[in-house]
Amino acid sequence: MIGSSLATGKLYDYAMEVGRLAAMRGAVVLTGGLGGVMEAACKGAKEAGGQTVGILPGVDAADCNPYVDIPVVTGLNHARNIIVVRSSTVLIAVGGQYGTLSEIAFALKLGKPVVGLESWDVGAGIIKAADPAQAVELAFGAAGLNPEG
């Protein structure tokens, strides 16, 4: 799950629901480990009994949001975005700023499916979703993962 560290309101709620639904289907929710969309996705996953991983930009595991089970410290700042992408089977982008755009670009370059929910419109590479449930359904289908839940 990728998206802005500044997300609030509707985007936060969307990310939380995506995390919850993905965890309910057995997915490990991997994020950049900080706030906003990343925190919301991890919170939703944890509330559904799922497991979360945070790929952190800094060198201190304590910097992660409180819903990360497995913090991975990188000391790479924004360069950690490639690790987020490489470690993911499929990416769901909720909203997002330039960091999210870089992750989308890496994913498309590497041939990884990207589902966008109110995120960047970069053309034919992104599978657009209208709501969190459709985002999860499309992501599981694009990755060939347990599409029935």
Q: How many distinct domains?
A: 1
Q: Give the biggest sheet.
A: 4 strands, parallel
Radius of gyration: 13 Å
Task: Compute the separation of the termini in Å.
Answer: 18 Å
**Number of DSSP E strands:** 7
Low-confidence stretches: none
CATH class: Alpha Beta
SS content category: alpha/beta
Shape: globular
Assign a percent range to the helix content: 25-40%
**Secondary structure tally, helices:** 5
Average of the residue pLDDT scores: 95
- What string, H for helix and E for strand, traces the elements in order? EHEHEEHEHEEH
Question: How do the strands line up in the largest sheet?
Answer: 1-5-6-7
CATH architecture: 3-Layer(aba) Sandwich
Strand content: 15-25%
CATH topology: Rossmann fold
Please, could you describe this protein's structure?
- The chain is of the alpha/beta class.
- The protein has one domain: Rossmann fold.
- The protein contains five helices and seven strands.
- The chain has a four-stranded parallel beta sheet with strand order 1-5-6-7, sandwiched between helices.
- Strand 5, helix 4 and strand 6 form a beta-alpha-beta unit.
- Helix 1 crosses helix 5.
List its traits.
149 residues; three-stranded parallel beta sheet; four-stranded parallel beta sheet; alpha/beta; Rossmann fold
Task: Detail the topology: elements first, then pairings.
Elements: E1 2-3, H1 9-24, E2 29-31, H2 37-47, E3 52-56, E4 70-73, H3 81-86, E5 91-94, H4 98-109, E6 114-117, E7 126-128, H5 132-143
Helix pairs in contact: 1-2, 1-5
